[in-house]
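idk why but the lab printer keeps eating my pages so im just putting this in chat instead. protein + magnesium ion:
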Amino acid sequence: MIELKSVAHTYSGTQAIKFRDWKINNGEQWLLLGGSGSGKTTLLHILTGILKPEIGKVFIEDTSIYELTSRKLDQFRGRHIGIIFQRPHLIKSLTIAENLILAQTFAGLKTDQERVTEVLASLDIDHKMHAYPATLSQGQLQRVSIARAVVNRPALLIADEPTSSLDDKNAFAVLDLLLQQSGLNQATLVVATHDKRVKDAFTNTYELI
Ligand code: ADP
Ligand code: MG
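predcted complex ->
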C-alpha cells in the first residue's frame, strides 16, 4: 500500500504543485495522467523517494519514507521500487547481465545470476545477455530497462512516459510488457503518461490538472 497525504511541492521560483491524496493498494495498476508540465515526473519522484516534497507525507506500507536516513532510503528504493525512465540509461561499459547484477548489488542483495537470466528470458532478450548496450536497438533497450526494474522483484513498479517516443505498435507492446511483468512479479504498477492512446488498458487513473 502506498499513501500520499497532503503533499505539495514548490520548486524555487515557481508556483506550488498540490497533489490530491492518493491510496494505491498492493497489486493495483494505475495510470497517472496529465499534460506536459502538470507534475507527473515530480509526483513519481516524490513517490519513489527521490524528491522529498516540501509538504506532506508518503507512506509505503507502514514506512513514512522521508523519515528514513538517506542511506536507508537508497536501499529501500533499490529493494522495493523498480523505475523505468523515459529513456533507458544503462552503464555502457557493462554488459546487459552485468547491468542487472549491478542493480542487485546496489540494493544490497546477493548476486543472483539465475534471476537475471530468468527475467531477461521473460522479456525475450536473454540472447543479448553478454552484449553491450550500444549494440542493442531502442526497443531491445526498453526491454532491458524493464528487466532491470523488475530484477529485484520490487513491490512497486514505476514507469515515466514509457511510450511517448514510440509508435502505436511499440507503445502497446511496451504497455503489455509492463502489465505482464507487474502481474508476474505481483508488483503494483504506476505508469505516467500524457498519451491518451494507452488510457483503456488501465482501470485506475489518477489525473493531474
Ligand atoms: P510533467 O512530468 O508532467 O511534464 P514535471 O513534474 O516535470 O511535469 O514538471 C512540473 C512543473 O514543475 C513544470 O512547470 C516544470 O517546469 C517544473 N519543474 C520541474 N522540475 C523542476 C526543477 N528541477 N526546477 C524548477 N522547476 C521544475
Ligand atoms: Mg515528465
